[in-house]
Amino acid sequence: MEAVVSTQSTGTFQLSILFQFNHRDSLTFLELQTNTMIEKEKLDQYVKQLVGFNVLAVSGNGGKDTEIQLTDTIQLNLSYSNRKIRVNLALPLKSETKQETEQAHQSVKDDRMLVIQACIVRTMKSRKQLKHALLLAEVMQQLQNFQPSVPAIKKCIGILIEKDYIERLDGENDTYQYRA
What is the pLDDT of residues 24-40, one digit of tens each? Predict the structure, then answer.
């Protein structure tokens, strides 16, 4: 069977890793890190990508699912072949984990709650006294960056009542008054 010549499309960091194998067939992870000067975490991800494409192989304790150790040996797969004429090895790295994404969403949610509270306080400070439905409408109208949900606004009203910024009028549960 005739060998197929293929074009490999890689990113800069992947290419710098592959260049290290121009004169040697195997390197330790530490040598690879020293020669390329790529951060350990990123280098680990790039090497795992190349291992996934069967361009490189890892011998030692590290592998696809575990973190590659500094003493693990990275070997060039000399029997690598691909039937495709053009192979794209340049895939984006996972930059955020699920936990970081959840933290970012929680941070945004907390910031929005503070913005809603500030809007309620501004509105009540200017109006002094307002019915519940009018306060909800006013807050929703003023907040242009995002559309707050009614339960979120109610929760913020409850927080502000606890903090003594506003209070319910005696005898009228649906009317709020600003406390200076």
Answer: 999 999 999 999 999 88
Is 60 exceeded by the pLDDT of residue 64? no
Q: Distance between CA 7 and CA 38 in Å, rounded?
A: 25
23 near 48, Cβ under 8 Å? Answer: no
Q: What is the pTM of this model?
A: 0.52
Q: What whole-number distance in Å separates Cα of residue 116 and Cα of residue 57?
A: 54
Q: Which amino acid is at 127?
A: R
Measured distance between the N- and C-terminal CA atoms of the chain, rounded to whole angstroms? 87
Instruction: For residue 157, give both structure tokens.
Output: 């009203």
* Range in 66-75, 83-92, 153-162 with the lowest mean pLDDT: 83-92
Tell me the C-alpha distance between 150 and 139, whole Å: 10
Amino acid (one-letter) located at 87:
V
Give the C-alpha separation, 143 to 91, whole Å: 39
18-55 burial: b if 16+ Cβ within 10 Å, else e: bebbeeeeebebeebbeebebeeeebbbbbbbbbebeb
The continuous run of DSSP H or E covering 76 comes out as: strand 73-76
The three-class DSSP label of residue 169 is strand
For tokens 């691909």, the residue is 82
The radius of gyration of the chain from alpha carbons, rounded to an integer in Å, stands at 29
